[in-house]
Amino acid sequence: MPAESPIVILIRHGRTKGNTGPNPVVRAWSEFSLSREGLLDAELAAQQLKKFDPKMVYSSDLNRDRQTAEIISSSFDNIPYDCDFGLRTANVGDLEEQPEADTREIAERWYKEPWWQVPGGESLNEFLRRWYPAFDAKFDLAKECEACRPSVIVTHGRNIAAIHARSEMIPQCEAQMTIPGGLSLVYLDSSLEPKIEFLSRTEPILEDI
């Protein structure tokens, strides 16, 4: 299936007050709601999705994901929408709501030492053991069931970068993610291997702490 016929479309949730302004903070599992700009991000994402006619929407249970997903679902006559804890971003424990500028060295260590667990949180390996199976289950369902294709997964920059890293077989710390509200298409290439194509501007994963 070419990129024009995606199986899953990944959407990074809209902006919150935590990742805007001059001093953004680490969001992770903290319950930030969409800002006014974030609501607009979700509306614009829904507009971009129209050409793909999505059949299903998933998100984690975090507020910013649910709000983005609900806007998308309602934009398509309330297509089925489901929450899955496995779609959450990484749990970074004691780093939550700390200024991003103060946590960059720790974030780099988290990526370069994937077994290392953030105090009060999880390691990169633990995050991937949760995220990859959750994603794969939804990808496989959409691949086999036309009525679920394409499915939309509203998620986080870290999660999108993890799919990019696996698709391109590059280190996690070198992967890219879309900007908030951005779209990424996940499809099968000629070898029937999942590949990702970004439709929005991207930024390095180390920008998403």
* Strand ordering within the main sheet: 3-2-4-1-6-7
* Second CATH tier, the architecture: 3-Layer(aba) Sandwich
Q: Which fold name fills CATH's third level, the topology?
A: Rossmann fold
Number of domains: 1
The beta-strand count equals 8
* Structural Rg: 16 Å
Question: Which range does the strand content fall in?
Answer: 15-25%
Helical content band: 25-40%
* Assigned CATH class: Alpha Beta
How is the quaternary structure best described? single chain
Could you please describe the fold and organization of this structure?
The chain has one domain (8-207): 3-Layer(aba) Sandwich (Rossmann fold), CATH 3.40.50. It is globular and about 45 Å long. The chain is built from five helices and eight strands. It has helices spanning 36-49, 63-75, 104-112, 124-144, 157-168; strands at residues 8-12, 56-59, 81-83, 151-155, 176-178, 183-188, 194-198, 202-204. A hairpin with a 5-residue loop joins strand 6 and strand 7. It has a six-stranded mixed beta sheet with strand order 3-2-4-1-6-7, sandwiched between helices. The chain has a two-stranded antiparallel sheet with strand order 5-8.
